Amino acid sequence: EQNDLRKIFRDILLSSHANLKINIQKMEKDLQEIKTSIIITDILGNILIHNVQNVGSGFILRQDLRDFLNSCNNIREKIFTSDSANFKGKNDDGKEIEIYIFKYIISVIIMKSRDLDVNSHDKVAILLNNVRLLADLIVSTNFK
Questions:
Q1: Per-residue pLDDT tens for 91-140?
Q2: What residue spans of 86-143 are helical by DSSP H?
Q3: For the chain, which residues make up each domain, given as ranges?
Q4: Under a CB-based contact definition with an 8 Å cutoff, are residues 97 and 109 in contact?
Q5: What residues are paired with 85 via a beta bridge?
Q6: pLDDT by residue (tens digit) across 48-104?
Q7: pTM for this one?
Q8: CB < 8 Å & 24+ apart, contacts of 56-62
Q9: How is domain 2-143 classified at the CATH fold level?
Q10: Residue whose C-alpha is closest to residue 106's, from 8, 10, 3, 4
Q11: What gap in Å lies between CA 86 and CA 99, rounded to an integer?
């Protein structure tokens, strides 16, 4: 039920922008083909789409990931003074977390292990480019 509510809420948010809705639906399909955990959120941590098992229980990231996202966003804004940035953390076991912030409005959180196959790696790169284009579309639509 929570997943259905999340999708309904997301669809309501995007209903006024047909192109945005189509892009989100395409990304949702693409996420299912990628063999690493990815969560796409707004900058506050509200989940738009994801492919992570057992995450669909709510509309928002858990607190530790929201804190990390908020810290990255503050660094992006105050130190990098840019509208987009990416951040990466890695442990000795090869696990990685990457956060990409696009146009100060959308973030992509990627949690991967060292054994990410080449096909998934390529699909992640395509997904990141699509999210970048989506962020550009959102910003340009709101300025119009």
A1: 998 889 999 999 988 999 999 877 778 888 899 999 999 889 888 877 77
A2: 118-143
A3: 2-143
A4: yes
A5: 101
A6: 888 988 766 457 888 999 999 999 999 999 999 999 999 999 999 888 999 999 998
A7: 0.82
A8: 56/2, 56/3, 56/6, 57/2, 58/2, 58/6, 59/5, 59/6, 59/9, 61/109
A9: Beta-Lactamase (3.30.450)
A10: 10
A11: 5
